[in-house]
Amino acid sequence: MGMGAYFRNIKDAVVTIADGMAVTLSHMVRKPTTIEYPDRLPDGVRVQDTLPFRYRGILEVDLEICTACLACERACPIDCIVIDAQKDKAAGGLVMTRFDIDMAKCMYCGLCSEPCPTGAIHHTPEFEGADYSLESLIRHYVKAPTVAYKPKKAGEDDPVIKPILDRGMRYIAEFAVVGGGGGDDSTSD
Amino acid sequence: MQEFVDSLIASGAAPAAMPAWVHYLTAMLVFGGVVVFGFVLPIAGITTWVERRVMGRMQSRIGPNRVGPAGFLQWLADGLKNLLKEDIIPTASDAGLFKLAPYVVIMGFVATFAVLPFSGDLVIADMNVGILYVTSVTALVVVGILMAGWASNNKWSLLGGIRSAAQIVSYEIPAGLSIFPIVALTGTLSMQSIIAAQGPHPWQWFLFDNPFTLAAFLVFFVSALAEGNRTPFDLPEAESELVAGFATEYSGMRNLLFFMAEWGNLYVIGAIVTTLFLGGWQLPWALDGQPVLRNALQFGLFFTKAYFFVFLAIWLRWTLPRVRVDQMMTMCWKYLVPIALVNVLGTAVWMLVFPHGVPVVRWVLTAAAGAGLIAFFWRVRYHVRAAGYGRSQLSFNPLATTRVKW
């Protein structure tokens, strides 16, 4: 190492450390972004409402648009999703008799919602899942046998299903955003 | 101290029948106890709160804010918690040394307060070897840490202890060499005399006496950080590598003692730097007739200067990542030691050539430091703006808890 490099090292150390300290000091004058959950929130504010659209909270299934393709069941790395569906000509397609998700096992990886063709299975911003027994953490989405959704070539026109499907497609579309998307920017700092 | 006790004996407040050394001993124990329990322990505790609040704000968080106003009593809660915890001594450890180690560490730290000045008149003992005494008793810390590392009978502890020994012993050299220029300039080792040789204004400080003392100040501060095991030199603890280094096996009160010494050491570093380079408690006014007011102001000034360096150490900790062992050694032996040696020789030559100092150099150095500070704050302003932060998203209140927006 020559003398030039030696003194350049010293100069670089001083300048870069000073600039690093300027960065940390600039953070010190910013307002903290801490959310004092749960007891010091502003009146009428639920933390769940401030979270991004794609926040990975408790899973939810919109049975109205579920096609019973079992893609989520196959994608789940810890098998916490169980779906039972049989072909029933009389009912007009696949009939789901069971759609259970064991939230005690779920690790919130989001791999189930990625292959879903309609965005029926998706995470919600809800995260308060504490309960007193493991059994009650298993969510049963099928209350009575339900006919699976079939996509229409011409596009959905049912006024009840259309908003649910639009929401599901938006959920899927935001996977594809370069840089992760992150959903609604109005709630993120 | 001695004059004060003598005046007490003369005034009849202390029974004159007893030999004088009894009075001296009693007075020293009382004053030492007051300083240790009334100043040293609270300052170490409160610094933990300050560190956590500063750390929080630097990470856009709030920090502890639940115990007492703005979380101020957090240090008491943590201290009580640690005192009440189970004191575990590993079966395979060398129990005697294991128990002794924290006390050796805390002794090396508390003993420095014997000579650290608080104000013009308030000092436990103004020893004529003051600064030498400080450098020698702080060497006790390395004995304690090595003892803890060995006695724990744990590979992480041992590695931490050995790293600590290598680090502290290495950095003692640039730290000691950086004290030389000041000692040469004043011709004394006494802390009070070193302060008395400086003036109240920045250009009268030894910091700006000549270019070599300015460099010595930087070398000393970096070395002191390394000796105090502070980030970026916290290799002996190195959470991500060694769990907690030499403190891995310690729990409860003994663990607390280690950390109290670490945080308390920050103030000691600040006080030594203030004494040597920043003019200590020197006030611009004489205030001869009002000893209480004078000492209170001097204490306030000294404490503010010293505590600024505590803040600086905390600020550095949350800015810089930990250095590697080889980088730590490179920095010491290839950079700090040669620079410190140049400082010693340079100051000697400077004193030979300019026996009475050069006022112009003092003013130029002070102005340069001022310009550097302005440039620094300009850079801070740039970083705030580059992050897209406007005035409404800033808070200059150190205790702010407001979120940016909902």
Account of the protein in words:
The complex is a heterodimer of chains A (189) and B (406). Chain A is elongated. Chain A is built from 4 helices and 6 strands. In chain A, strands 2, 3, 5 and 6 form a 4-stranded antiparallel sheet that branches. In chain A, strand 2 and strand 3 form a beta hairpin. Chain A is an alpha+beta fold. Chain B has 406 residues and is an all-alpha fold. The longest helix of chain B is centred in the first third of the chain and has 39 residues. Chain B starts with a helix and ends in a 20-residue tail after the last helix. The model of chain B has no long low-confidence stretch (mean pLDDT 85).
In short:
The complex is a heterodimer of chains A (189) and B (406). Chain A is built from four helices and six strands; from the N terminus they run ααβαβββββα. By secondary structure, chain A is of the alpha+beta class.
Topology readout:
The complex is a heterodimer of chains A (189) and B (406).
Chain A: H1 3-28, H2 47-50, E1 59-61, H3 71-75, E2 81-88, E3 93-102, E4 121-123, E5 138-140, E6 146-147, H4 161-173
Antiparallel strand pairs in A: 1-4, 2-3, 3-5, 3-6
Chain B: H1 2-11, H2 20-58, H3 74-84, H4 95-110, H5 130-137, H6 139-151, H7 155-186, H8 191-196, H9 211-227, H10 239-242, H11 252-277, H12 291-317, H13 325-353, H14 359-386
